[in-house]
Specification:
mainly alpha, Rna Polymerase Sigma Factor, Chain: A, Arc Repressor Mutant, subunit A, 2 domains, 8 helices, 66% helix
Length: 187
């Protein structure tokens, strides 16, 4: 079992960052709180067994747990959008140490605009963006996670990304057309 005193010190920081991670992955309010609570329970129960030589590895571990919990939530909420194979893939996929948001300085206005634009998407479209942009999955891995062919997934991903670009353009931010700005390489 974890060390209660050490956990109490980390609790507010972990809670806030996991909540933000869940929000970036398309969840809202109470859903983010539920995911944060589940992640904190797992961290408390398993931290004593883990060894980390750098704080970045701690955050990678926390974000890996958070990402898995978000996908599990989506699987319960919209089972047709996340396949069982996709959940199994996430069990073997670790989040890199650079996932700590403190290492990604992004202009606040642009980030807020992107969050708003992604929030306007329907659930399915938000999910299509998550794998490649947040989790770093390749298109093939993301297609498998959603139970789609590669072509079907790429079409839906592109459509969702174009909706975000159009929304951002309407806000006065012209995002460059690139295949992916973050995430795994290739198909």
């Amino acid at each position: 079992m974890g060390d209660r005193a050490a956990f109490d010190v980390l609790y507010p920081t972990i809670w806030r960052r996991v909540y933000q991670r869940a929000a970036k992955m398309g969840l809202r309010g109470e859903e983010c709180e539920d995911v944060a609570q589940k992640v904190l329970v797992r961290v408390y129960l398993y931290a004593a067994r883990a060894e980390f030589d750098r704080k970045e590895k701690v955050w990678a571990w926390v974000y890996t747990i958070a990402t898995r919990e978000v996908y599990k939530h989506w699987k319960r909420k919209r089972p047709e959008l996340v396949s069982e194979e996709g959940l199994n893939l996430l069990e073997s996929q670790a989040t890199g140490p650079s996932a700590d948001p403190a290492t990604h300085a992004v202009e606040a206005e642009v980030l807020s605009g992107v969050d708003d634009c992604i929030g306007r998407l329907i659930d399915a479209d938000r999910l299509y963006l998550l794998g490649p942009l947040v989790q770093g999955l390749t298109f093939r891995q993301a297609a498998a996670a959603h139970g789609l062919t590669l072509g079907q997934f790429k079409h839906r991903y592109t459509r969702a990304l174009e909706a975000v670009r159009d929304c951002m353009k309407a806000k006065g931010h012209d995002l460059q057309k690139t295949r992916r700005t973050v995430g795994g390489a290739g198909d």
